C-alpha cells in the first residue's frame, strides 16, 4: 500500500506538459505509456539513491540524483516533484540537511503516481 500523500501534495500534472506529451503520442502511439513507465522506474531509483547516499553523507550524490529527477519531473509535468527535487539539489550542494525534503519528495511521488500511471491508460486520440 502506498503512503498517503502529505497535505498540499499535488495529484495533478501540468496541463502544458501534458499537451506536449499528447502531441508526441499522436506521432508515436504508445509513447505516453512508455514515458510514464520509464519515469516512475527512474524516479524510484533516484529516490532510493538519495536515501542511500544521505545515509552515508554523500551530499554530492544526493544533489546529482535530485538534479536528474528535477529534469524528468518537469518534462512529464510533475511540477511539485520537480520543485522539491530542485530544493534538495540546492540544499545538498550547500551542505544542508535534506532529510525532511527527501521525505516530502517520497510523499509527492506517492501523490502524483496515480496521475502518471493514468498516462499509460489513456486511449489514443
UniProtKB/TrEMBL annotation:
GO biological process, one term: phosphorelay signal transduction system
All copies of domain HPt, residue ranges: 28-119
Pfam family, any one: Hpt
GO molecular function annotation: protein kinase activity
Top-level taxon of origin: Bacteria
Keywords attached to this entry: Phosphoprotein
Residues the record lists as Phosphohistidine modifications: 67
InterPro entries for this protein: HPT_dom_sf, Sig_transdc_His_kin_Hpt_dom
Official protein name in the record: Hpt domain protein
